[in-house]
Amino acid sequence: MSAVTSIRPLKLVAVTGAPNSPSKTETLVNAILAQLQQHIQVDVQYIRLSQIGHLLNGAARRDLLAEEVQSALDLIEAADALVVASPVYRASYTGLFKHLFDYIDQFALVDKPVLLAATGGSERHALVLEHQFRPLFSFFQSHTLPIGVFATDKDFENYQVVNPLLLERIELAVTRAIPQFLFASKLKVNPTIHDDFEIKLHQVLATQPHSVFLQHVQNLNFASSNTIATSFVNT
């Protein structure tokens, strides 16, 4: 399978709003991350509300929060991209999930790509991604990726994803996310190559699915395109 590498790994932060661990929500995020790591280099930081939720304590200001929570907020704000997920409680993400993001700086997530995911008891909750998650991250002016992942209880057994249709959905969401993630990680081409190539590459990263991007890099008709393709695409 082809893989793309950048000068540095993508700084990705995964946030799960489940109050308990293990959880189906964490399982879903793990499956998304595993699929992503098959394709690009990723430096993953994991923030679990099951671990730090009890430290939120209703603090009125960010500087009153426990150090663990402040560190989690710093990681979110410094990330290139986010994968966020929560179980559905009362038709929305958990209160702990919202409470954490209440402390995020209003402009810290501008233009960051965010892959949305959620778990619920049945398909009745599937629109939570559109009606709850997307408006929250629209407030932050984040770039919520068009394909999210929703899973129900029947998609899991013993905290493992067992539904092949869900695995296909995860693969599709990740494939469509990769160009945006690579663009967010400020992927750079060899500086000895003409700037036109970098402009062209960034345009492709911003608009094309992963497979199309790979083919495009291989087919670009610049004098040194073979050298660049070799440095970015390992077959």
From TrEMBL:
SUPFAM superfamilies: Flavoproteins
Alphabetically ordered keywords of this record: Flavoprotein, FMN, Oxidoreductase
N-terminal signal peptide: none
Keyword Oxidoreductase: yes
Record-annotated NADPH-dependent FMN reductase-like domain positions: 11-155
Source taxon at top rank: Bacteria
InterPro entries: Flavoprotein-like_sf, FMN_Rdtase-like_dom, FMN_Rdtase_MsuE-like, NAD(P)H-dep_FMN_reductase
Cell membrane found in the keyword field: no
Pfam families the record matches: FMN_red
Family per record: Belongs to the SsuE family.
Protein name: FMN reductase
The organism of origin for this protein: Acinetobacter modestus
